[in-house]
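user: can you give me the structure for this one chain? C-alpha cells are fine.
assistant: on it. calling the predictor now.
[tool input]
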Amino acid sequence: MSHPRTRHQVRSKFYPPFDWRAAVWASVIAGVVFTILDIGLAWSVRGVSPWRPLRMIGAIVLGPAALSPPDAFGAEVVVVALLLHFMLSIAYGTFLAFLIPALDTLWTIILGGVYGLALYYLNFYGFNAFSPWFAEQRDWVSIASHFVFGAVAAYAYKSISAPRATA
C-alpha cells in the first residue's frame, strides 16, 4: 500500500515529488544565511550600521518613517523586518522548490543562484516604485546575497527532500 501523501502525486523523471516540509525548511535556512551575509557585508563592506538593512525592510510595511534614524536599533522595526523577510524567504524559496528539476547537485546550486539573481532584479528594480529607498543598495553585496540565497535554498531543498523521496 502506498503512503497517503505520495499516492496522488504525479511521477516524473524530470521532477521529483514536491516536499512542502523540505521547501519551508530550505527557505528558512536560506533566509538565515541571507540575513547574516547581507547584514554582515553591510557593516563590513558598505560601512553602514547593521540596523540599516532591517530598517529598509521594515519600512516596506511600516512606511518610510521607519527609515529614521537609519543607524539605530528599533525593536518594532526589527521584528517587522524579520517577519517580512522570512515570509518572503518562504514564499520565494517554496516557489524555487517547485521549479527545481531532477538535476545533479552542481546544476541545482547554479539554477538556484540564477533564480536568486532574478529575485535581486525583481526586488531592486521591479518593486522600486513601492520601496525606492532600496535603490541605494544596488551593488555587488546585494547581488551576491541574492545569488547565495537562491543557491542555498536550492541546495538545502535538494538535500532535505532527497532522503525523504527515496524512503
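assistant: here you go. The radius of gyration is 18 Å. The longest helix spans residues 20-46.
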